[in-house]
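So, read this over?
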Amino acid sequence: MGLRLRAALQKVSLRRHLGKLLRATGEDGRPSGSAHAPGPSGEAEASFTTEVPWPSLRKFAQFAYIAEQYGYRYSGLDPDLRDSGTPFFVFRRLQDAGERAARTRESFPGAPGNGRLPGMRAWPLPVLTRPAARSEVKLLHARIVVDYYGALGRQRMRPWLIGIPVVFVLFLLVNGELHATGLRVAAGMAVALILVLTASRFVMRRRRATYRRLLEQSGVRPPP
């Protein structure tokens, strides 16, 4: 029962974000609220910008696959929000978006409601990708990891290196523990957190390099 409940909640999350895309781009039949940016030809093109709404980048890759079935292809980091501090990703409307969306609605008429999502297994395991879509989802996941970890890797470490000790000192000051023992404990905890943060950066770089190699082997040109 717990597994089914968990799967149902995750299924709703994918649906909710799909509904958000369709509403924002006007693909649900209502007036569009999507952002339009100049395309390569100088004409305005529809796009959908979002942060990662789940803890799992793999689930975001599943969403990217579903979005493409409705005509919106994952295009990496949004260049206009590159310096926002939070990675935002853009999905751009394909030239054949109308035809794609029409085929998807015909094959999966209840997807935005309570029917099966494109490329995903039916209830009770909606978050598992069907075999036919796994290779595409795998490549999307690799692209997202490279983009996401690349964005995090560009964030500066200095604010953390300064902020962590300051927070501990303020905590001691507020609680009246600003003495030698308290400072030693706070210093140890601050150093531990900084080491964890540094190690996580190292792990992210290693994982990013691994997924970059996967993309190169698959003939996909990863971002710099």
In short: Confidence is low (pLDDT under 50) at residues 1-12, 31-44. Residues 85 and 156 are 10 Å apart (CA to CA). The first strand starts at residue 35 and ends at 38.
